[in-house]
Amino acid sequence: MTTPHIPVLLDEVVAALAPAPGTLIVDATFGAGGYTRRLLDSGATVHAFDRDPDAIAAGREWPETRETPPRLVLHPRRFSEMVSGLAEVGISRVDGIAMDVGVSSMQLDQPARGFAFGADGPLDMRMEQDGPSAADFLNTAAEGEIADVLFHYGEERQSRRVARAIVAARPLSTTLEFANVVRKALGYNPNYKGQSAPKDPAIRSFQAVRIHVNGELEELRTALAASERLLRAGGRLAVVSFHSLEDRIVKQFLRDAGKAVAGASRHLPQVATGSATFEKVGKAIRPSQAEVERNPRSRSATLRAAVRTDAPARESERISA
Length: 321
Prior knowledge:
seven-stranded mixed beta sheet, 40% helix
């Protein structure tokens, strides 16, 4: 049974972006278009990015893509490529950027995509449906590399034990094969019915491999840097993340962007050479209990929002974006 796509923190994201007729907003992670739908209804024009060809194909059926001029423009590319993608259509500044980071419900709910183990499917996990798959990585990488991925991206404390079990079980070809190898290595019983049943440890390994296969954390860092270049003064950024690794990157980016840029010299004290490029808006927002009950997948979501100042983009951010 599939879970219908429900955009997470929808009201809060839209409020953070403050769309209005005539505004130009980027939906950096189009997916099923939940944010885009509400933004279009507000009168905004939306440029939507998605690396998943299935999402783009579905978006092309929307009537707003056929308006003159179109109010929905789809970009079949990674959100780290926002600067170059928008430049190709003559856009250098936008009024708002929304990012909903991570895997989508549509990807999780299709066993053929290999993102989850609720039903067996090929060990794929590729958002773009191109390039090396999860199976390619797990079946060819050195044990040490697999262990590093599990530790850094899945925060798996017993990553070496799991990596050793993966190498011993190769070749792996399905999601359930992978999940069962992880469970056996960590002594987990998926059929345990006790009240204090532990969380399935395969979730951590699936997260780690998915992040690695898709380069998700570097994509996020580059996309955040791109937002600094693209947003006009007063433009708004809203980022929804779903686990601590993502949220840490967003939090650190906004913390650094909210400080004056210090100049370095061996002979002089540090002095401020630039101004803050973003001002945070309020505190991080988590879903209400009502939203979690309505959409359990929203449980771990965190929204952070900020407003672009009129300070020039930082030089280092120009390079990385």
